[in-house]
Amino acid sequence: MKKIIFTDKAPAPIGPYNQAILSGNTLYASGQIAINPSTGELITANINDETHQVMQNIAAILEAADMTFENVVKASIFIMDMNNFAAINTVYGSYFNEKTAPARETVQVACLPKNVNVEISIIAEL
């Protein structure tokens, strides 16, 4: 049985999807971009701030599902410019214990919603 996960501490969906779905013990979170949920503003002044906002949005969704970054088993990172990989990776890595970090892939794409530089989705388990 699936349960819809929603929090006002992360950006509201802007289409026919949910922030996350909990199915059994597995959480599937939609891709997050750097929208400040309090203001609705995009945070794109620099790649570090943008990536931190993405990770804070993911943290809010995890919290709404009674989870933390320790529960994340898989992450997918989509970036507009592979030249930003090192900066994104540094910020992303600061949210995980390196020894228990999830599996992941990082893919450069042609375009992302609202022309952001990074979008990250996760799968987590209780």
TrEMBL record:
Entry-linked Pfam families: Ribonuc_L-PSP (PF01042)
TM ranges: none
Similarity comment text for this entry: Belongs to the RutC family.
PANTHER family in UniProt: 2-IMINOBUTANOATE/2-IMINOPROPANOATE DEAMINASE RIDA (PTHR11803), PROTEIN HMF1-RELATED (PTHR11803:SF58)
Protein name in the entry: Reactive intermediate/imine deaminase
Gene that encodes it: yjgF
